[in-house]
Design a protein that fits this description.
alpha/beta; Aspartate Aminotransferase, domain 1; Aspartate Aminotransferase, domain 2; 2 domains; seven-stranded mixed beta sheet; three-stranded antiparallel beta sheet; 35% helix
């Protein structure tokens, strides 16, 4: 099976379609080799690295349309670290979580702890989408803008009728930099940079509203125990100095800075949004027209434009397809491991070229023909 050779005319130029870590552009790697490498092994408390942090912060604010009063906060660790940090530092009494897959469920789990009331969890069937509901006593509403495990997208929008002062938490890890949005419709837009931002791990970032910052500072002033590593107040204070509590992943910052500059120079978030939409639309249309494949997310309005999940009929094993693809240099299109479906999952992040997506479908068609 893995001996199947896909003709070169059906192969993409770049065969990386993983949902994180994602494809990095060759220009990013070249820039790191010449400029970024000079920062490796230097102090993160000195101007060169602090200037790099500021470059990233300023670039993100520009990309996110410069919402008045919002700040870019960053800290050590990825999104998992941020979930725990938010549980210690930002949720006051009770949260409501909208769950459509693995990553939304993880944040809900982090908010189940002794000092908070049990969160209200709205569980949707994987591949579908429900909605957050206004609830008295809830001070924090949390959801994934893009559920990476299933390919379901949720609009960035405040909950109508929520208690005054309630904050919106948007998990944007696989959406940030690839889907346009109105920042004023959320308070905490957080993400790790290894997806649309084509970088590496080790850091979390959050676009925070004045209300989110005020809440964080108010909780920090109470007697609640907050470990320093999980203190968002500490992260805010350090971010205002263009640094992190502990040494940051400098390569991650540099690659991120290159990607942000590339996006802003080409038209910003609207331009990135158009790229991901064109690539995902092509995949969905291909699946809709296929005799052996269909989009996993049945409602077109719920389909992600950055993570496309495609189901296959029982006569075709997606694992067989992915093995052949990998042997031919097309990698990381396997289904999410815990979802357990007969499907492929394809990232259509901003750095992904539409022509490569078109070639991917040709390669899949060829492989299915050989396996039939």
């Amino acid at each position: 099976m893995s001996e199947i050779i896909i003709p070169s005319e059906f192969l993409p130029v770049d065969g990386r379609f993983g949902c994180g870590p994602s494809k990095l552009r060759s220009a990013q790697i070249a820039a790191f080799a010449t400029e970024g490498s000079k920062l490796m092994g230097t102090s993160h408390r000195q101007a060169p690295v602090k200037n790099l942090v500021k470059r990233v912060q300023d670039g993100l604010l520009e990309l996110f349309h410069n919402p008045e009063g919002y700040e870019i906060v960053l800290g050590n660790g990825g999104s998992t670290a941020f979930w725990d940090a938010a549980a210690f530092s930002m949720v006051e009494n009770k949260a409501q979580n909208l769950v459509h897959g693995e990553f939304g469920a993880k944040f809900a789990s982090a908010l189940t702890n002794p000092w908070l009331q049990k969160p209200t969890v709205i569980n949707g069937t994987p591949g579908s989408r429900l909605e957050l509901q206004a609830e008295a006593g809830v001070d924090s509403y949390a959801y994934a803008q893009n559920e990476t495990s299933t390919g379901v997208v949720t609009p960035v929008k405040r909950v109508s009728g929520a208690d005054q002062g309630a904050l919106m938490f948007t998990d944007a890890t696989s959406a940030a930099g690839g889907i346009d949005f109105d920042a004023t419709e959320t308070d905490v837009y957080y993400f790790a940079p290894q997806k649309n931002f084509a970088s590496d791990g080790g850091l979390w970032f959050a676009l925070m509203s004045p209300a989110a910052i005020e809440r964080t500072e108010r909780i920090a002033a109470t007697d609640r125990y907050i470990p320093e590593f999980l203190s968002v107040k500490t992260a805010i204070d350090n971010s205002r100095l263009n640094q992190t509590l502990n040494t940051p992943a400098i390569a991650t910052l540099f690659l991120l800075g290159e990607q942000i500059d590339w996006m802003n120079e080409n038209g910003g978030l609207a331009w990135a949004d158009a790229r991901t939409k064109a690539a995902s639309d092509f995949l969905y249309e291909w699946a809709d027209a296929s005799e052996f494949a269909t989009p996993f997310v049945s409602n077109p309005e719920h389909r992600s434009q950055v993570v496309v999940t495609i189901d296959f009929n029982d006569e075709i094993q997606a694992t067989d397809i992915s093995k052949v693809l990998r042997a031919n240099g097309i990698v990381d299109v396997d289904s999410y491991r815990k979802l357990g479906r007969n499907q492929l999952r394809v990232a259509t992040f901003t750095a992904t070229e539409l022509d490569d997506i078109k070639q991917l479908t040709k390669a899949i068609d060829y492989v299915v023909g050989q396996l039939a």
